[in-house]
């Protein structure tokens, strides 16, 4: 929340100037007067720097060294009034508002004509952004640094607000969810809800910009629930979907193993039918499972036979024989990235997702949605990085002028902005196409374009990370302070280039899909 302007006292410049000693230290930041006398000795930047500006206007020094959030946190405690004749100019956006920084939002949200976004998308974005900023963002950074998972209360809050349901996409499950008393953000009706609403939900969560903690807010669910939703037996599906969307239970997708990443067919975790035919007995391990450390359910790929046709999907509940252990990644442990061990885990045959031996199809069916979701998240993260760079370039002075006045910085910004706008425009087009196809048709026709979009997106992320680091300098490798968002991005953007299929696999898949529909008799 922005600090409430304190109009209770107005001081003349001369009055402020007279409080200019270590024992009586006032400063001005953007027309507001702060009494720093007691704070000076606790100031993380040291007391001396404050003594140097005692009784003076320190706006430029302050905004050259601090994020706005510092004033939001400490301002109300130390602000004592305003300067007569000066009106504070710096904006403190209220929760849910759209940024006015150029290219910080998709142009359709900054008032330009758009074929995609309707009133319901604007309403939805405002509601989700307000929720994220007021309910999730305020302690995200502290929890991410501490490596803590999102609490059960946070999950239930997300469930009640309809954020979890919004991240699984349109479909009959939303009607079921609302019939059972659930609500969607912004009062959107299930029949209005489309893939743009879902895309917005992913974007807004990604904008929280604490990559590990952001993943702990449901990335496992986004990829782990669809196999149950589309391939689970009705009784199990209805129970599990209701539990997960309300935030009472958590689910993740367990496919990759130490010896099987993008090469899904190499998985070795086995599921053997028990003698009475009532259970599968699962043995093996899984690695890099997002949210695995704290989930209740695991949509797990298992081997029930040989080759591609020997892969099946099982819904496995945490219980005897299933152990999870956190893996240390470049992310915060908040993401709950886990190594999973299955030792003689008994799974009822009813928990088979799809048919035995058709696990590969179940996995492929969901991969497009997973990749599209990764693209939505990383693109939004890049937009935020660009916004931070644009602001920083207007804040930071070097060699006597603003960074933005240096042509080399404008060149970098031009590249970053144009690349992000291009991938986002492709994302919007594909999302529009998803809205106009059923899930099956989209899985077939959009697999190639989504793979190529993901490839382009993570290549752009590489460039954006590189350029933003050069713009932010030392702050881009410092976890706290001005470059916090850039530091988090450069440390973690590679996740998107590997998860859900590596760049190399995306490139190959994209072209092979195009080869399938190439009219073979076309000649030069
Ligand atoms: C309301 C007034 C101020 C408050 C509440 C405040 C608070 C803080 C805080 C919380 C930090 C740590 C920032 C972080 O790492 O996230 C910090 C750092 C710092 N502050 Fe202040 N500050 C104020 C004014 C000033 C002024 C006027 C100056 C300079 C004249 C200054 C100079 C510095 C410096 C040099 C650092 C270290 C920055 C770095 O490591 O990059 N501060 N301040």
From TrEMBL:
GO terms for molecular function: acyl-CoA dehydrogenase activity; flavin adenine dinucleotide binding. GO terms for cellular component: cytoplasm. Its cofactor is FAD. Transmembrane segments: none annotated. One of its GO terms (biological process) is fatty acid beta-oxidation using acyl-CoA dehydrogenase. Residues 8-84 form the Cytochrome b5 heme-binding domain. Keywords: FAD, Flavoprotein, Oxidoreductase. Pfam families: Acyl-CoA_dh_1, Acyl-CoA_dh_M, Acyl-CoA_dh_N, Cyt-b5. Belongs to the acyl-CoA dehydrogenase family. This is Short-chain specific acyl-CoA dehydrogenase, mitochondrial. It comes from Acrasis kona. The lineage of its organism: Eukaryota, Discoba, Heterolobosea, Tetramitia, Eutetramitia.
């Amino acid at each position: 929340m922005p600090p409430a302007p304190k109009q209770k006292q107005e001081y003349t410049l001369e009055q402020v100037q007279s409080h200019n000693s270590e024992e009586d230290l006032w400063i001005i930041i953007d027309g507001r007067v702060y009494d720093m006398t007691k704070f000076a000795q606790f100031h993380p930047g040291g007391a001396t720097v404050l003594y140097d500006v005692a009784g003076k206007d320190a706006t430029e020094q302050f905004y050259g060294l601090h994020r706005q959030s510092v004033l939001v946190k400490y301002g109300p405690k130390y602000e004592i009034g305003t300067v007569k004749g000066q009106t504070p100019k710096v904006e403190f956006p209220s929760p849910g508002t759209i940024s006015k920084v150029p290219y910080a939002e998709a142009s359709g949200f900054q008032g330009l004509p758009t074929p995609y976004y309707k009133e319901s998308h604007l309403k939805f974005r405002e509601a989700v952004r307000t929720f994220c900023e007021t309910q999730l963002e305020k302690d995200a950074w502290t929890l991410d640094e501490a490596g803590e998972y999102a609490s059960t209360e946070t999950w239930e809050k997300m469930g009640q607000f309809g954020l979890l349901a919004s991240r699984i996409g349109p479909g009959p499950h939303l009607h079921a969810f609302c019939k059972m008393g659930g609500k969607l953000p912004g009062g959107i009706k299930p029949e209005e809800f489309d893939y743009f609403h879902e895309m917005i939900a992913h974007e807004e969560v990604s904008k929280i910009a604490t990559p590990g903690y952001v993943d702990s807010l449901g990335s496992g669910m986004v990829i782990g629930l669809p196999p149950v939703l589309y391939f689970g037996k009705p009784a199990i599906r209805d129970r599990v979907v209701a539990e997960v969307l309300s935030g009472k239970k958590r689910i993740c997708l367990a496919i990759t193993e130490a010896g099987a990443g993008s090469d899904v067919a190499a998985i070795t975790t086995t599921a053997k039918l028990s003698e009475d035919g009532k259970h599968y007995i699962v043995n093996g391990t899984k690695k890099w499972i997002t949210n695995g450390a704290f989930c209740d359910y695991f949509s797990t790929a298992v081997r029930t036979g040989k080759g591609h046709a020997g892969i099946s999907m099982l819904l496995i509940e945490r219980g005897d024989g299933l152990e999870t252990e956190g893996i240390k990644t470049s992310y915060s442990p908040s993401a709950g990235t886990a190594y999973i061990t299955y030792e003689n885990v008994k799974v009822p045959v009813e928990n088979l997702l799809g048919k035995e031996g058709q696990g590969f199809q179940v996995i492929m069916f969901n991969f497009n949605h997973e990749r599209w979701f990764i693209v939505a998240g990383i693109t939004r993260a890049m937009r935020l990085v660009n916004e931070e760079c644009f602001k920083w370039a207007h804040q930071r002075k070097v060699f006597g002028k603003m960074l933005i006045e240096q042509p080399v910085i404008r060149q970098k910004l031009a590249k970053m902005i144009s690349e992000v706008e291009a991938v986002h425009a492709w994302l919007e087009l594909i999302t529009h196409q998803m809205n106009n196809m059923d899930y099956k048709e989209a899985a077939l026709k959009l697999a190639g374009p989504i793979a190529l979009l993901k490839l382009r997106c993570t290549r752009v992320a590489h460039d954006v990370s590189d350029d933003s680091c050069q713009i932010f300098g030392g702050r881009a490798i410092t976890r706290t302070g001005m470059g916090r968002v850039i530091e988090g991005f450069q440390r973690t953007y590679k996740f998107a280039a590997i998860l859900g299929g590596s760049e190399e696999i995306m490139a190959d898949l994209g072209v092979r899909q195009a080869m399938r529909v190439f009219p073979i008799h076309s000649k030069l």
